[in-house]
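Exercise 7. Given the encoded structure of a 191-residue chain, write a plausible sequence.
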């Protein structure tokens, strides 16, 4: 038992039964580290560890650096920010990179979930919102293969003061209609 997460192992193999992977959600604190929860004073070595340990209303500050990880907010209405979101030099020095979808809001986050002051690059999708309404500001989102931002599943994200150049699509938006999804405005946002 690890912080509310139970791990179960199967002692024998059964036909047709296999375990494809295990997902553990836990965090830990350090006395030093580039990420700090300003609400609790705890420090972390990874942004995701700080997000996993955070409670609604917490503010997480990332120092300049390169964070090679994928972020999932798990329905938490928190603020994740760089040291100075409005300073282009700080945004350029506070980078989230890696493969796949870099930042995901897909668990009903509201407009009270704020993500601000980062560069997102090198993923398939820089930032994805599925049925969530986060507030995204002062981010530079570039060099992502499929899309800079993907909005779908009735997402009503607020995006302001962001640069979204040199992605497969700048902003990919899907409209939900009865039993199918329709891609809208791809040409308007292609870059």
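Solution.
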């Amino acid at each position: 038992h690890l912080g509310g997460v139970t791990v179960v192992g199967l002692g024998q193999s059964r036909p047709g039964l296999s375990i494809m992977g295990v997902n553990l959600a836990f965090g830990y604190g350090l006395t030093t580290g580039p990420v700090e929860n300003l609400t609790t004073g705890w420090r972390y070595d990874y942004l995701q560890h700080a997000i996993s340990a955070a409670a609604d209303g917490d503010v997480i500050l990332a120092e300049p650096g390169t964070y090679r990880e994928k972020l999932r907010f798990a329905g938490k209405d928190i603020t994740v920010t760089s040291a100075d979101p409005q300073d282009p030099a700080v945004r350029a020095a506070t980078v989230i990179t890696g493969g796949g979808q870099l930042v995901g809001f897909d668990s009903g986050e509201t407009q009270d979930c704020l993500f601000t002051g980062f560069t997102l690059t090198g993923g398939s999708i820089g930032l994805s919102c599925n049925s969530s309404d986060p507030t995204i500001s002062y981010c530079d989102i570039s060099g992502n293969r499929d899309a800079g931002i993907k909005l779908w599943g009735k997402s009503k994200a607020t995006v302001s003061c962001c640069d979204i150049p040199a992605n497969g699509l700048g902003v990919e938006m899907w409209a939900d209609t009865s039993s199918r999804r329709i891609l809208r405005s791809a040409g308007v946002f292609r870059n």
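Remark. Confidence is low (pLDDT under 50) at residues 1-10, 178-191. Students should compare their own answers with the one above.
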